[in-house]
Design goal:
With about 425 residues, the chain is α/β, with parallel strands linked by helices. The termini are far apart. Helix 4 links the parallel strand 4 and strand 5. This is VWA domain-containing protein. Keywords: Membrane, Transmembrane, Transmembrane helix.
């Protein structure tokens, strides 16, 4: 091949290579468009997710704050306040996009519904034709509290006299009552019962003629005759000698709350008091002075029977006998709670001093309460069967344990606020 021809061929190949590079660059540029768009979309959706979280928090907060002030402000004032609350809790692009919320105020059912929308401008995702991403949030709240019935089943056994436990329990209980009183907006919206327990419980002797009581328990005392022989003297409890103490019902009713109490085995056995200074039960009431007096009257005495405390806590929350003041479980917006507190292990009931056997009854009593729809909090004060109380609680978070009696007040404060606080309904 001649040299000039070879040179021409080489020039042609160079031009071809140059043309191929140009095509590759063009093709690469086209391919980068969706890649940039997808990358941009990922970044923009991340920004939108952050804006959504911010909006959710702002709307939730506004709904709760509005519920708190619903009784003090008019509808127009509430709407203005809600919009200001939301705007104040937004920043950056979210704040620029927000204009106003959609607000519904239902004063009959005490419900506030808040909805808000944002449009987050995109940046790189615009190459794919998406100029903004819609973000929405809604929340609903109620003002005041639901109707509450709360039983305080409190260990009043002798061991509560040690380590300042009884004084701390009284202080914590009085603080709880104060919080619940302050949370009440209407008459009888929150009612509380107080159930001091040891091996027995005690009720007012004015109930001696109630059909749910039975008087057949006996008490035997021993004395020596003139010749030194032991003489047994057995007497049966009667209405005139009864001072208000009640022991465990016959099994299996000792762990139940039969609303219909008529059959012999369902009756409550009036008994001689093993602990004469045991404070009586105060049924459900919103008389805050009566509740304060009931707490102050508690004294530590006797052995531990957690079963009877749980069973009578449940009894105060059930509409049927022995107390009839509780509302039906299916009452709208009604919530029932029990706080079961003890500092010791089971030691004695009407049937046995075998703690393990009594534990089995306690488990069943707690389950009966939970099955009925009662939310059970349990509190272990320094000592007691941890596993038993953990299992008695409705959820793990409703079990509390204190290693120092002084810790009872903050625990009761937390429980009181959990029960009484305004909550988001959805």
């Amino acid at each position: 091949m001649r040299v000039p021809a070879m040179l021409k061929r080489l020039k042609w190949l160079r031009r071809l290579r140059s043309d191929e590079r140009g095509n590759v660059m063009v093709m690469f540029s086209f391919a980068m468009v969706p890649i940039i768009g997808l990358t941009g979309a990922t970044i923009d959706y991340s920004r939108a997710s952050e804006a959504r979280m911010m909006l959710n928090s702002a709307v939730d907060s506004a709904a709760l704050m509005a519920a708190r002030d619903a009784t003090k402000l008019s509808d127009s004032e509430l709407r203005e306040r809600i919009n200001k609350w939301i705007a104040a809790n937004l920043s950056g692009e979210a704040a620029k996009s927000f204009t106003s919320a959609t607000i519904s105020i239902d004063r009959t059912n005490r419900i506030i519904t808040v909805g808000a929308n944002l449009a987050v401008d995109t940046s790189l995702a615009r190459v794919m034709g998406q100029n903004s991403i819609a973000v929405a949030s809604s929340a609903q709240s109620t003002w005041g509290t639901n109707t509450i019935e709360l039983a305080l089943a409190l260990d009043n056994t002798g061991s509560m006299a040690s380590s300042g436990k009884m004084d701390a329990l009284k202080a914590a209980s009085l603080d709880l009552i104060k919080i619940m009183k302050e949370a009440t907006l209407t008459t009888d919206q929150i009612r509380i019962s107080v159930v001091p327990f040891a091996t027995q419980v005690k009720v007012s002797t004015s109930l001696k003629d109630e059909s749910w009581l039975r008087f057949d328990q006996t008490q035997t005392t021993w004395s020596r005759d003139r010749w030194g022989n032991w003489i047994a003297n057995t007497v049966t409890i009667n209405k005139s000698s009864w001072t208000g103490c009640i022991s465990d019902r016959d099994q299996p009713n000792d762990v139940k709350d039969n609303e219909s109490v008529s059959a012999y085995a369902t009756l409550y056995p009036a008994d001689f008091c093993a602990q004469s200074t045991l404070a009586p039960i105060t049924p459900l009431t919103s008389d805050w002075t009566a509740l304060t007096n009931a707490i102050n009257a508690m004294t530590p005495v006797g052995n531990t029977n957690v079963t009877i405390g749980a069973n009578w806590g449940m009894a105060t929350l059930t509409p049927g006998a022995p107390f009839t003041g509780a509302k039906a479980f299916n009452t709208p917006r009604l919530q029932k709670y029990m706080i079961l507190l003890t500092d010791g292990e089971n030691t004695q009931n009407r049937f046995t001093t075998n703690g393990s056997a009594i534990d089995d009854r306690t488990k069943l009593a707690c389950q009966s309460a939970k099955d009925a729809g009662i939310r059970v909090y349990t509190v272990r004060v320094i000592n007691g069967d941890r596993t038993l109380l953990q299992n008695c609680a409705s959820t793990p978070s409703m079990y509390y344990e204190v290693s120092n009696a002084a810790q009872l007040t903050p625990v009761f404060q937390q429980i009181a606020r959990e029960i009484s606080q305004i909550r988001l309904t959805q």
